[in-house]
């Protein structure tokens, strides 16, 4: 039987996967440990009866985009509306739409490693060349290194992840401003991925302007406790949103997703309470890890990156799984040999993780 060959650029690529293991404590995918409030679930169940299932959804998702603008507009320097918001099936589809619009054959995308693996993966799937510069040993970004890469390779898209996944590092405002200045000089687009932005003290939303080539992407999967919803969005200049609308598939965002997104945003206080609790829990977990034989790095997200001292990270990962605790093995990321990443869970889940890790590292 003959079969068509896959594109050369795809043939040697691996897919992006997170292990799904049946364990008591699952702390590997940065999901929210709490479900959304019951009032949201009840409102969604009631709202489903009003959907006209035989009709296509609102192609422009106006109600959802308007509500996102209402909520996020508090952090932008000027007013925004639906024209400044692009919504899609998870922030990964937002990233894909960016790469389809501004990347592709003969164009270059820049990343700074280690960082979110799907930035380069999606760019390559869309036919772009990917160039990368290494971060410093503490995972901060050297602005001079970034500047040299961008001026030399002149990418049409530059990705910054802040807080960075999987390191947890927040990009300082002065770093983002410096990178944006070079991006403007070369005629590119700066994409600041803030999937964990609500956990951090500073957001690139404060840099948005109609005449600046910078956008911020966010998701409902983390702070809004809605990973199952698969809803993400971009906030930026209206001309970027117009360009993305040219490449996204028609009616890509179904009616139920749009409804759920609107209803979720009615529970802003609940979201902020969950975020505040997780930030406090992050401090507790960092303090506990500091008493163990691990190296760890400052985090502004809902996870912590750490490396066991004198132990093979993969062996520690497996021993945690054997004890019913699943964290993320990050050894495949550039520069993260032996590193593991733990998502903040409930207090009980975090206690079980700490007990298991202590047992693995100390033998007791």
Write a compact overview of the structure shown:
This protein is of the alpha/beta class and 364 residues long.
Mean pLDDT: 95
CATH architecture of the largest domain: 3-Layer(aba) Sandwich
**What's the number of helices?**
12
Hey, roughly how much beta strand do the residues contain?
A: 15-25%
Unreliable stretches (pLDDT < 50, length at least 5) are none
Instruction: Report the oligomer.
Output: single chain
Report how far apart the termini are: 58 Å
CATH class of the largest domain: Alpha Beta
Counting structural domains, the number is 2
What does the main sheet amount to?
7 strands, mixed
Structural class: alpha/beta
Number of strands: 13
CATH superfamily of the largest domain: Type I PLP-dependent aspartate aminotransferase-like (Major domain)
Describe this structure as you would to a colleague:
- The chain has 364 residues and is α/β, with parallel strands linked by helices.
- It has helices spanning 8-11, 38-48, 62-72, 90-102, 117-125, 143-153, 173-186, 238-247, 255-264, 268-289, 313-322, 347-362, and strands at 25-26, 85-88, 108-113, 129-134, 157-161, 189-193, 214-219, 232-235, 294-296, 303-308, 325-326, 328-329, 340-343.
Secondary-structure blueprint of this entry?
Elements: H1 8-11, E1 25-26, H2 38-48, H3 62-72, E2 85-88, H4 90-102, E3 108-113, H5 117-125, E4 129-134, H6 143-153, E5 157-161, H7 173-186, E6 189-193, E7 214-219, E8 232-235, H8 238-247, H9 255-264, H10 268-289, E9 294-296, E10 303-308, H11 313-322, E11 325-326, E12 328-329, E13 340-343, H12 347-362
Parallel strand pairs: 1-11, 3-4, 3-5, 5-6, 6-7
Antiparallel strand pairs: 2-8, 7-8, 9-10, 10-13, 12-13
Helix pairs in contact: 2-9, 3-9, 4-5, 4-8, 6-7
């Amino acid at each position: 039987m003959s079969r068509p060959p896959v594109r050369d650029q795809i043939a040697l690529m691996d897919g992006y996967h997170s292990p799904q293991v049946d364990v008591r404590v699952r702390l590997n995918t940065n999901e929210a440990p709490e479900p959304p409030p019951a009032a949201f679930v009840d409102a969604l169940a009631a709202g489903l009866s009003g959907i006209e299932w035989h009709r296509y959804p609102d192609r422009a998702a106006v109600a959802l985009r308007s509500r996102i603008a209402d909520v996020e507009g508090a952090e932008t320097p000027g007013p925004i509306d639906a024209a400044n918001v692009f919504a899609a099936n998870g922030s990964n589809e937002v990233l894909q739409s960016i790469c389809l619009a501004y990347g592709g054959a003969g164009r270059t995308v820049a990343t700074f490693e280690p960082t979110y693996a799907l930035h380069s993966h999606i760019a390559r799937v869309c036919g772009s060349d990917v160039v990368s510069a290494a971060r410093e040993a503490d995972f901060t970004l050297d602005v001079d290194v970034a500047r040299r890469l961008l001026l030399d390779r002149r990418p049409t898209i530059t990705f910054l992840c802040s807080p960075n996944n999987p390191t947890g590092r927040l990009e300082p405002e002065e770093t983002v401003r410096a990178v944006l200045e070079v991006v403007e000089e070369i005629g590119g687009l700066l994409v600041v991925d803030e999937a964990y932005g609500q956990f951090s003290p500073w957001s690139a939303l404060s840099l948005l302007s109609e005449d600046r080539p910078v956008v911020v992407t966010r998701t409902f999967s983390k702070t809004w406790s809605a990973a199952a919803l698969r809803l993400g969005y971009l906030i930026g200049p209206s001309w970027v949103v117009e360009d993305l609308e040219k490449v996204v598939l028609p009616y890509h965002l179904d009616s139920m997703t749009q409804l759920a997104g609107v209803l979720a945003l009615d529970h802003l206080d609940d979201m902020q309470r969950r975020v505040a609790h997780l930030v406090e829990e992050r401090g507790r977990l960092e303090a506990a890890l500091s008493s163990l034989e691990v190296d760890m790095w400052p985090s502004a997200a809902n996870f912590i990156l750490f490396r066991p001292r004198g132990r093979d990270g993969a062996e520690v990962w497996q021993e945690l799984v054997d004890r019913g605790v699943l964290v993320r093995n990050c050894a495949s990321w550039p520069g993260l040999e032996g590193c593991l990443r733990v998502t903040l869970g409930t207090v009980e889940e975090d206690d079980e993780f700490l007990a298991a890790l202590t047992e693995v590292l100390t033998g007791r």
